[in-house]
Design a protein that fits this description.
The chain is an alpha/beta fold. The chain has two domains: about 45-145 and about 280-310, Rossmann fold (3-Layer(aba) Sandwich); about 150-280, Rossmann fold, CATH 3.40.50.2300. The chain is built from ten helices and twelve strands. It has a six-stranded parallel beta sheet with strand order 2-1-3-4-5-11, with helices on both faces. Helix 2 links the parallel strand 1 (about 45-50) and strand 2 (about 75-80). The longest helix is centred in the N-terminal third of the chain and has 21 residues, at about 1-20. It is elongated, with a radius of gyration of 32 Å.
Length: about 325
């Protein structure tokens, strides 16, 4: 009985082995490697502002977001709060976060150059918006979008000569010290009025502040009682200058020339508080860098610079404008 059971077990074992031998061997296969995530056809963009408290920047920011939303672009927006070191740190953080494009509205022309150099070394496409870097950094800048500040000064000089055909003493209330507009708007104004009867007697910088501009104008009015005009680097500061001139009882007598063409400026032109301002297209300045970023990322050709138009606004044509900010 035991022998028969042993034989039976042996037969079963042989059959099992034969069956295993006849089965096709399984081929060892490796799981296919996970496909790498496809590269997006849209860039990651960091928009770094000098200060978001300025009305002009707020208007440009709205335009930038509108364009980014329309194109589906991821937009990181940061406020430099007029602090150069903070803005330099923001550039470094944008590089670390893997931003493809940095749009920089620089606080001044020189202090951010080392940070921009690092962005360039990291392969970031650098767009300078609104206020240019120093000429020594030209190789770092891939594109500029904004106004030609030298030409702004030239046009404002012409408007001042129109407002003061017999000439007179003029003081300049400038923008933030060391910024491209502060330097070039004054240079353009000086070039434009050279050889005329316009005498530039003084100039003082302000961090684009209405209150500071008012204080500067008050001091100038005391220092130069025969002052005939003010050239103010933007309409927001012009509002402060207007208050100082009003307090001195000289509205209309002292001619104020400004730049921006915003609601403050246009209303002041209508009221006869300033002689003229000029349009700064913040919609263009805010949206265009986003368009450039997308075009560059998708391999399209982009220009080295995109300038907005400078359009003088006087009492004769102010009703043709509908400022958005």
């Amino acid at each position: 009985m035991k022998r028969m059971l042993s034989v039976l077990l042996a037969v079963i074992l042989l059959v099992s082995m034969a069956a295993c031998g006849q089965a096709p061997a399984e081929q060892e296969t490796e799981e296919p490697a996970a496909e790498m995530e496809e590269k997006s056809d849209l860039p990651k963009v960091a928009y770094l502002w000098c200060t978001m408290s300025a009305p002009s920047v707020q208007a440009a920011s709205v335009a930038a977001h509108r364009e980014a939303d329309a194109q589906g672009v991821e937009l990181i927006e940061l406020d430099g709060e007029m602090n150069a070191q903070k803005q330099a740190d923001q550039i470094a953080n944008a590089i670390t976060q893997g931003c493809d494009v940095i749009v920089l509205n620089p606080i001044d022309a020189k202090s951010l150059i080392p940070a921009c150099q690092k962005a360039k070394e990291a392969g970031v496409f650098l767009i300078i918006q609104g206020m240019q870097l120093d000429e020594s950094a030209a190789d770092l800048v891939d594109c500029f979008v904004g106004c030609d500040d030298l030409e702004v000064g030239v046009q404002c000089g012409k408007m001042m000569m129109d407002a003061l055909p017999d000439g007179g003493k003029v003081a300049i209330v400038e923008g933030a010290a060391g910024s491209d507009p502060q330097i070039k708007r004054t240079q353009g104004f000086e070039q434009s009025t050279e050889g005329s009867n316009i005498e530039i007697v003084d100039k003082q910088t302000s961090p684009w502040s209405t209150e500071d501009a008012m204080s500067i104008a008050e001091d100038f009015l005391i220092k130069y009682p025969d002052l005939a005009g003010f050239f103010v680097h933007d309409d927001s500061m012009a509002a402060g200058v207007i208050e100082a001139v009003k307090a001195a009882g000289k509205i209309g007598d002292i001619k104020i020339i400004s730049y921006n063409g915003n609601k403050i400026g246009c209303e002041a032109v209508k009221n006869g508080e300033i002689a003229a301002t000029a349009l700064q297209d913040m919609d263009f300045s805010g949206a265009q860098p986003v368009k450039v970023a997308v075009d560059w990322y998708q391999g399209k050709e982009v220009e080295k610079a995109y300038y907005d138009n400078i359009v003088p606004i006087t009492k004769e044509n102010v009703d043709e404008f509908d400022p958005q900010w």
